[in-house]
Amino acid sequence: MGGIRTAGDLVARAMASKALKINEAKKYVADKLGVSVFDLSDSQVMREVREDLNIGHVLARPGGAIGIEAKIRIAELLGIEINSVKRFHKCYG
Amino acid sequence: MKKIMSRMGDGSVTWLTPDELRRELEEGTADAADRGKIAPLSKDELERLFEIYAAPQKVVSVEPGQEVVHSFDAGTLKFPIRGGVPVDRLGTVLAHERAFCSDTFEVGHTDYSFKPVKAIIAEERQSMEQIQLNATIPVYYGAMPNLGLYTKPDGPIENWSELLPKGKINEAREAQEEAVEHAVKDMYFVSTAMHESGADGINFDTVGASGDADFLATLKAVEKLKKDHPDMHIEMGMAGEFVLGMHGELEYEEVRLAGLYPHRQLELVEKAGADIFGPVINTKSTKTVPWNIARSCTFVKACTEKAKIAVHPNAGMGVGGVPLTSTAPVDAISRASVSLIEIGKADGL
Fold first, then answer.
1. A35-54: b or e for each residue (b if 16 or more CB lie within 10 Å)?
2. Engineered SS bond to B142: which of A35, A62, B106, B209, CB 3.0-4.6 Å?
3. How far is the CA of B102 from the CAs of B12, B85, B140, B216, in angstroms?
4. pLDDT per residue over B278-310, tens digit each?
5. Contact assignment for B138 to A12 by CB distance below 8 Å
6. Percent of chain B with pLDDT over 70
7. Per-residue pLDDT for chain A (93 aa), expressed as one digit of tens each?
């Protein structure tokens, strides 16, 4: 789907966390982001969405979230559990 | 009559008339239907495959909005090991995340089997923890059950491949049953450790490579892992389309494992508790790519029609309608991808 250039990572996470198939996961993510399913794989739309939400993107920028910072926001945004985020909270409070 | 560029299953170019292309597709789906005792593709589905494989463009694609996600096997082996690029696994993950735009990725040890990882688990955990701090995409840990590693001289068990030609059937079976118990312990140990280090999931790759005992060991390990760690996300990718009966009498949930095709493998993978099933359909190198993709789509469709979990068919060198070559031609791999998504109804690749 295009990973963090679009919404591929988010759809993959929804599939894993909510035990969804591809079309259900796309709808779940689209609803959470407030965009259409079509928009999820549009890099132009998703760049703005990802930068506004600061959930990680292929283009590095000052203040742009990467890694665990981005994943903490993604977990909250999608209402899902992310294993590394759980571990981070457990280890670092 | 203008001929259509196509390929053989070994990757070499061949040219087909439209009638020949249609015949290859029909014979490919018929072969799968006969072997798997499943429904062949419909006329409409074969016609769509014809359009995909007759398209003159080098690269084809699904329509915008119809994309699916990718998962990996041997993820961190491809760039630094097979490609020879001097970059560590963290760098490899970030390159896939930010340059190749992978949806997910998978970290594995160079040996890529669970048994050898056991001895270096501390270092593997450390790498995973560092990678998880830096990566945004889901990162799995992957390895192979590889039951053969438990045989002498590398392991403690007699080698069933040496016992079988000597006619020592019972001894060969007992050796495999013993290997299953060792493998389950190792897979459980490594998977639990990587889960505790933040892995987004565990990928069991090339399941069944050593036959029905290999498949049984993985099913047992997955069942135990899911019981103790319900939040662990597990992908099971197969080694081949047909479970080899190296033992021949092993069962899981009262189903004999030897001889199972993908749609029957799926049922057991679901019972064990895995979240993603990766069916393999072998490419026949002496047949055309259209023959192979019609065959692959027939098997994959039989899986997705009844699957409760996501199905990610393997689509790479020598499987899923992709030629048996380590540098798969982009025309063939793009056509296989579109076909597996549109006709096979795959959730991912």
1. bebebbbbeebbbebbeeee
2. B106
3. 29, 18, 13, 31
4. 999 999 999 999 999 999 999 999 999 999 999
5. yes
6. 100
7. 999 999 999 999 999 999 999 999 999 999 999 999 999 999 999 999 999 999 999 998 999 999 999 999 999 999 999 999 999 999 876
Largest CA distance in chain B: 64
B332 Cα to chain A: minimum distance (Å): 19
CB atoms closer than 10 angstroms to residue A4:
27
Q: What share of chain B is helix, strand, coil (3-state, %, to 5)?
A: 45, 15, 40
If you search the block for the tokens 């439209």, which residue do you land on? B18
How do beta strands B234-238 and B202-207 pair? parallel
Q: What is the per-residue pLDDT across B51-108, written as a single tens digit (0 to 9) for each?
A: 999 999 999 999 999 999 999 888 898 889 888 999 999 999 999 999 999 999 999 9
Is A15 in Cβ contact with B347 (below 8 Å)? Answer: yes
Q: What is the Rg, in whole angstroms, of the alpha carbon atoms belonging to chain A?
A: 13
Report the distance separating Cα A2 and Cα A6, nearest Å.
Answer: 5
Which chain A residues are closer than 8 Å to B90 by Cβ?
none
Test mutation, A20, A21, A58, A74, chain B, max B CBs within 10 A = A21
Query: For the packed helices B169-196 and B121-134, what is the interaxial angle rounded to 10 degrees?
Result: 40
Distance spanning both ends of chain A, measured CA to CA: 34
| Residues of chain B found within 8 Å of residue A20, distances taken between Cβ atoms | 310
CB distance B93 to B114 below 8 Å: no
Tokens read off for B162:
């040496």
d(CA B158, CA B155): 8
Verify whether the Cβ–Cβ distance B71 to A12 is below 8 Å: yes
Q: Searching chain A, which residue's CA lies closest to the CA of residue B230?
A: A17
Angle at A23 between CA A21 and CA A26, to 5 degrees: 105
Residues of B with CB under 8 A from a CB of A: 64-65, 67-71, 96-104, 129, 132-138, 195-201, 231, 233, 275-276, 307, 309-310, 346-348
**What is the distance between the alpha carbons of residues B27 and B41, in angstroms, rounded to a whole number?**
11
Query: Which helix (DSSP H) or strand (DSSP E) does residue B236 occupy?
Result: strand B234-238
- State the amino acid at position B70 in one-letter form: H
Give this prediction's pTM. 0.95
- Residues of A within 8 A of B71 (CB-CB) are 12
Map tokens 């694609």 to a residue: B61
pLDDT, average across residues B211-239: 97
Taking a contact as any Cβ pair under 8 Å apart, which residues of chain A between 58 and 87 contact chain B?
A: 58, 60, 66-68, 70-71, 74, 81-84, 87
